[in-house]
Write a structure and sequence with these properties.
Layout (H helix, E strand, L loop, with lengths): L1 E2 L26 E5 L2 E5 L5 E2 L1 E4 L16 H6 L6 H14 L4 E2 L14 E4 L21 H15 L8 E5 L16 H6 L6 H13 L4 H8 L16 H29 L4 E2 L4 E2 L4 H5 L7 E4 L6 H11 L3 E5 L3 E2 L13 E2 L2 H16 L4 E6 L29 H19 L4
Parallel strand pairs: 5-6, 5-15, 7-8, 8-9, 10-11, 11-12, 12-15, 13-14
Antiparallel strand pairs: 1-2, 2-3, 3-4
Helix pairs in contact: 3-7, 10-11
Length: 423
């Protein structure tokens, strides 16, 4: 099985490859299934996986409520320019076994001949707020117009770059109840403004679902609405939950189709890597995912296998872990805000990293992983208050040597673990 095999002239992108065997030099990254195992295929036709890092940023994170960037203040003492910083950090990443730049990485790094990914924020730039859990109204003209504009501005200029792996359309959109709120998608859409396209679609969906008989909806939901326009936004009955799942699938299909169409209209050569799920979304979202080439999921656990196996069972798409991390208690950081398990020290963090990578790449559907993140967060908290030991390096750009010794070994073994599945 092969997805998005696109032809163009380009040289070999030199990253970790499984073997010297070439599976068709298509000029750009693609995904393929070989002997039942999913892989990224490099522009020169070699099988590989993504081994990446998120947020490799010259500025680092600012202290919450200020314009102070502690990491930037330190790196300026070592590197006279951003270009000098970029050259040095790309060298370090390669020496530690990384081959991809993950989301939010500095564009200054994209010209250093290391494969990279781009986060477009289509829903976020169309009115969604991922931190507050506010969804984008995918039925507004603004959503489709914004998607096209973003693709024309951010995708079209990169259409012929062989080092670009692909695009994430958004980060951790809200598809249902989570840490940001208890409302499901149908409730959120019914709570939109009375004249909004999203609310009108939700009302029309219910009208058709109950054949225009408000009494049937009232009985199913246990409510007393006078008309479909007056339907309350929530109910506790099983029928309401079922209606939500159907409506959620409609919203998800619309979202992914619009994003995929906009991205590939502007750039037909590169992959659509999905919308960076925060853990496994509802199955109706996964079933609507066919417009994308790869499912990207952020999973903060010691063992990614249950999440990845379930997502693949429903979606049948290759899976990239776009975020994972472990925080060490000996780092000197509070670690009181932020996702991910805590471990006692940097040695334990290295073991957790190795175990995670080995477990993940023992799955035939896993096409790689991207660590969150390059540098520690400020101890005072970043923009959202997170204050955790996520970094490969600390706020002074100093590497966690004990941790990175284990990371390097795990990175260099990861492709071998995945390759064994083909035997």
């Amino acid at each position: 099985m092969k997805l998005k095999c696109r032809i163009a002239a380009a040289g070999l992108v030199c990253i970790f490859a499984v073997s010297a065997k070439v599976y068709g030099a298509g000029g750009y990254f693609r995904v393929e299934q070989r002997s039942g195992v999913w892989w990224f295929v490099t522009p020169s036709g070699h099988l590989t996986i993504s081994i990446g890092v998120d947020t490799v940023s010259y500025h680092g994170a600012e202290i919450q409520g200020t314009t102070i960037y502690p990491y930037l203040d330190h790196v300026r003492n070592f590197y006279p320019t951003k270009n000098a910083w970029a050259d040095a950090e790309i060298g370090r990443l390669r020496s530690w076994g990384f081959n991809t730049l993950g989301a939010w990485s500095d564009p200054a790094l994209w010209t250093r001949k290391m494969p990279y990914t781009v986060l477009l924020n289509i829903a976020a730039r169309s009115g969604a707020n991922w931190r507050k859990g506010i969804p984008a109204d995918v039925y507004t003209p603004r959503f489709e117009t914004t998607a096209r504009r973003i693709a024309e501005e951010d995708c079209a200029p990169r259409a012929h770059d062989p080092y670009l792996v692909g695009y994430f359309s958004d980060n951790e959109l809200r598809w249902g109840p989570d840490w940001r709120g208890k409302q499901n998608m149908l409730t959120m859409y019914l709570n939109l403004g009375a004249h909004s396209p999203g609310r009108q679609h939700a009302v029309e969906f219910l009208r058709k679902r109950y054949s225009g008989h408000i009494q049937r909806l009232n009985q199913a939901w246990g409510v007393r609405a006078a008309s479909f326009a007056d339907v309350p936004s929530a109910s506790t009955t099983p029928a309401f939950q079922t209606d939500n799942l159907v409506f959620l699938g409609m919203v998800a299909r619309r979202y992914f189709r619009v994003c995929a169409r906009a991205i590939h209209a502007a750039d037909s050569n590169h992959l659509y890597l999905g919308a960076k799920f925060a853990g496994s979304p509802p199955d109706s979202v996964l079933r609507a995912f066919r417009a994308a080439d790869v499912i990207s999921v952020d999973t903060y656990s010691f063992d990614p296998r249950p999440t990845v196996e379930h997502i693949y069972k429903v979606s049948r798409r290759p899976i990239l872990v776009a975020e994972f991390a472990f925080r060490a208690e000996d780092s000197g950081l509070p670690n009181t805000r932020g996702a991910g398990p805590k471990v006692p020290n940097q040695g334990a963090r290295a073991r957790a990293y190795k175990d995670f990578v080995t477990r993940l790449e023992s799955l035939p559907q896993a096409v790689g992983f991207q660590w969150f993140e390059w540098c520690d967060e400020p101890k005072q908290g970043r923009f959202d208050g997170e204050n955790s030991n996520y970094g490969l390096v600390n706020i002074k750009d100093q590497p966690y040597t004990r941790f990175l010794t284990g990371v390097t070994a795990a990175n260099r073994e990861a492709i071998s673990v995945h390759r064994k599945l083909m035997k």
